[in-house]
Amino acid sequence: MKTIATPAGMQAWSRDRQADGKRIACVPTMGFLHDGHLSLVRRARELADGVVLTLFVNPTQFGPGEDFAAYPRDAARDLDLCRRHGVDAVFMPADESMYLPDHSIYIAEESLSGTLCGASRPGHFRGVCTVVAKLFNCVLPQVAVFGQKDAQQIAIIRRMVRDLNFPVEIAVAPTVREPDGLAMSSRNARLDADSRKSALGLSRALREAACAYAAGTRDSAAVLAQMRTTMERAGLRVDYAAAVDALTLKPVAALADGVLLAVAAFAGGVRLIDNQVL
Ligand code: PAF
Questions:
Q1: Residue 150 CA: which ligand 1 atom is closest?
Q2: Most exposed: 17, 102, 116, 210, by fewest CB within 10 Å?
Q3: In DSSP terms, which residues pair with 26 in a beta bridge?
C-alpha cells in the first residue's frame, strides 16, 4: 500500500494506473476509521481496480466553536486498517498542501445546503464541497463511495458533480450500525457512558417512525413530534427531526415511500446525525 502526501504525487499515481486501463475508486474520509468506512472500502473494491482512501480532517468544514481540534485522529491505526483491508493507496495531505496560505476559491452549493445540518452549521457544506472537489482533482477517480449516514452530504455532492460536470460516479453504501442500533461514526469515540446511552435515542426515534409508517401513519408532523419526544426522553438535545424529499431535501407533509427521515442531536457535547429512507 502506498502512502501519498502531495496532490501532485496523488495525481501521478492515479494517472499511471489509468494509463494501464485501471479504474480508480476514491473513499473520502476524515480518518479514525470504523466498520462503516471499511464497508465503503469493500464497496469501492467491487466498483474499481484500485482503491484510494483519503485521510484528511478538513478544517474548512468546521465552524468556529465546532470540534475540529477535538476530532479524533489516529493515523497509525488508520493506515494499519487500510493495509489489512486492501486499500491500494492512502492520500493523507498536510493541511498546508491542501490549503495554501492565500487559498481563496471555495465551492458553495446554494440550494440544498441551507437546510438540515446546513441550517445549524453555516459554511459546513461549502467546506465539504470545496474539499471533495479538491480530493477529486487529486485522486482523479472514476467513482467515489460515500455512506448513507451523510444523506444530505450525498445529495449535495451529487448536485456538485452534476452542476460542475465532474466525471465521477457517486456510489452510496448503507449505514453500518453497532449491534444496539447506533450508527457508526468517528465521533462516537467522544461519547462518555451516559452520552453513549442517550445516543441510542436517534436510531430509536427513526425505528419508531418507520414502524408508525408501516402501520399506516402518514402525517409527518405527528411522526416528527414523536421522534423529538423520543430523543428528548433519551436525554438528547435535539437539533432537528425532519421528513424531506431525499433529492430536493424539501419538507414533506405526508410520509411516503422514499421519504428521508433525518435527525441530528447532541449527546453530551457531541453532535450526531442519522437517517432512514422510508
Ligand atoms: O464525510 C466525511 O467524512 C467528510 O465530510 C468528507 C466527505 C471526507 C469531506 O471532508
A1: 1
A2: 102
A3: 52, 144
Report the distance separating Cα 45 and Cα 13, nearest Å. 17
Is 28's C-beta closer than 6 angstroms to any atom of ligand 1?
Answer: yes
Q: pTM of whole model > 0.90? A: yes
Nearest CA to ligand 1 atom 2: 29
Cβ–ligand 1 distance for 58 under 6 Å, the answer yes
What are the residue ranges of CATH 3.30.1300.10 in the chain? Answer: 186-277
Judge contact between 272 and 265, C-beta under 8 A. Answer: yes
Residue 199's pLDDT is: 98
Q: What is the predicted pLDDT for the residue at 258? A: 98
* Residue range(s) occupied by CATH 3.40.50.620 in the chain: 2-173
Question: In whole angstroms, what is the distance from residue 64 CA to residue 88 CA?
Answer: 35
Tell me, using a 6 A CB cutoff, whether residue 29 lines ligand 1.
Answer: yes
Mutate to test the pocket of ligand 1, among 30, 73, 95, 156 (most ligand atoms within 8 A of CB): 30
Query: How many angstroms separate the alpha carbon of residue 56 from the centre of ligand 1?
Result: 8
Q: pLDDT of 165-187, one tens digit each?
A: 999 999 999 999 999 999 999 99
Active-site residue set = 37
Residue 18, all three cell numbers? 489509468
What pLDDT is stored for residue 48 in this prediction? Answer: 98
If one counts every other C-beta atom within 10 angstroms of the C-beta of residue 72, the result is: 14
CATH number for the segment(s) 186-277: 3.30.1300.10
Is 148 in contact with 275 (CB distance < 8 Å)? yes
The CATH number fitting domain 2-173, selected from 3.30.540.10, 3.40.50.720, 3.40.50.970, 3.40.50.620: 3.40.50.620
150: Cα separation from own chain's centroid: 4
User: Average pLDDT, stretch 13-25?
Assistant: 97
User: How far apart are the CA of 31 and the centre of ligand 1, in A?
Assistant: 9
Cβ of 185 closer than 6 Å to ligand 1, yes or no, is no
